[in-house]
């Protein structure tokens, strides 16, 4: 399954691409945004394409092969943006894109336990599976009840955070796969709602939705990465260059919004007073687009 790039036209417009622009795609994924960027920067515009996931990078290389000489592929965490740019001597930087989170093939096909809908997958959830970060199963085993409650509440806005954390810690067999975790969450909800329905849906959501989202964010320290990467992005942008960030979680969007607002108005112009969201048509065609928010700033000097 190919990832469908979200807010594609809006992002491309926001970056104000010109022939010869040098753009950094911090989250290359399947290369959908980069493909459009390459088209609009012909003949000599370049893209520095970063992704932490070796499988994403391999797929993007294949997909973009006809323009590969204009792309530098880097397998890294974009929290090291400044170092990557300096090592690759990529300058001037005319635009930067961060399209946060996961891509569809990661979610659906890579068997890393991102989705509660895929039974019996190992609970890994790392974007970069070969690094020394903890897998989700290790995080569950090593965290205290209070730490788990915090993760579910802050990153998932899960209303049964406490009850779920207690149930996880009481589960002595060890939680290794997606089904183990889903079953624990379902049992907590059944007890709370006093129902014996197999899946007690909550406001149209499967009860495990928020727990899985929260764990993924914690495993990859997603909020911390954005926090650390945004100042580097502003620093390396050339005058007139733009930074576009697409987020899918209210907590993420808050970090971006507050950071943009905190910047000196003599150096930065906020282009999106309100975030750009998907059109009705896009939201209808792509469920992932429904929660997307695009914020853009321009560096003045
Ligand atoms: C939403 S997808 C990007 C999709 C892409 N724009 C496209 O059109 O195909 C996000 C990608 O960012 C990568 N990613 C997430 N966090 C990352 C990080 N901290 N450093 C590097 N890559 C990351 C994921 O592995 C995933 O491939």
From TrEMBL:
It is found in: Cytoplasm. S-adenosyl-L-methionine binds at residues 31-33, 51, 78, 99, 106. One of its GO terms (cellular component) is cytoplasm. It is an enzyme of class 2 (transferase). The keyword Transcription does not apply. The gene is rsmH. SUPFAM superfamilies: Putative methyltransferase TM0872, insert domain (SSF81799), S-adenosyl-L-methionine-dependent methyltransferases (SSF53335). Specifically methylates the N4 position of cytidine in position 1402 (C1402) of 16S rRNA. This is Ribosomal RNA small subunit methyltransferase H. Keywords: Cytoplasm, Methyltransferase, rRNA processing, S-adenosyl-L-methionine, Transferase. The keyword Cytoplasm applies. InterPro entries: RsmH, SAM-dep_MeTrfase_MraW_recog, SAM-dependent_MTases_sf. GO terms for biological process: rRNA base methylation. GO terms for molecular function: rRNA (cytosine-N4-)-methyltransferase activity. It comes from the Bacteria. The lineage of its organism: Bacteria, Candidatus Magasanikiibacteriota. It catalyses: cytidine(1402) in 16S rRNA + S-adenosyl-L-methionine = N(4)-methylcytidine(1402) in 16S rRNA + S-adenosyl-L-homocysteine + H(+).
């Amino acid at each position: 399954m190919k990832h469908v790039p979200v807010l594609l036209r809006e992002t491309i417009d926001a970056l104000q691409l010109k022939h010869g622009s040098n753009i950094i795609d911090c989250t290359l994924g399947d290369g959908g945004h980069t493909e459009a960027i390459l088209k609009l920067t012909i003949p000599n515009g370049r893209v520095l394409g970063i992704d932490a996931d070796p499988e994403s990078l391999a797929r993007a290389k294949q997909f973009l092969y006809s323009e590969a000489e204009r792309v530098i592929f880097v397998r890294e965490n974009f929290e090291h943006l400044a170092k990557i740019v300096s090592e690759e001597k990529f300058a001037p930087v005319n635009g930067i894109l961060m399209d946060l989170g996961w891509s569809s093939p990661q979610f659906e096909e890579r068997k890393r336990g991102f989705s509660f809908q895929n039974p019996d997958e190992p609970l890994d959830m790392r974007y970069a599976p070969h690094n020394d970060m903890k897998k989700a199963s290790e995080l569950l085993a090593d965290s205290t009840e209070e730490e788990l409650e915090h993760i579910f509440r802050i990153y998932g806005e899960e209303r049964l955070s406490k009850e779920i954390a207690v149930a996880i810690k009481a589960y002595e067999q060890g939680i290794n796969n997606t089904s183990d975790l889903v079953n624990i969450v379902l049992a907590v909800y059944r007890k709370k709602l006093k129902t014996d329905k197999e899946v007690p849906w909550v406001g149209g959501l499967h009860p495990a939705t928020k727990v899985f989202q929260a764990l993924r964010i914690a495993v990859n320290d997603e909020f911390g990465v954005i926090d650390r990467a945004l100042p580097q992005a502003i620093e390396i942008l050339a005058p007139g260059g733009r930074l576009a960030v697409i987020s899918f979680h209210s907590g993420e969007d808050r970090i971006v919004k507050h950071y943009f607002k905190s910047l000196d108005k003599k150096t930065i112009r906020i282009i999106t007073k309100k975030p750009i969201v998907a059109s009705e048509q896009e939201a209808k065609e792509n469920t992932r687009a429904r929660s997307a928010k695009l914020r853009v700033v321009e560096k003045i000097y």
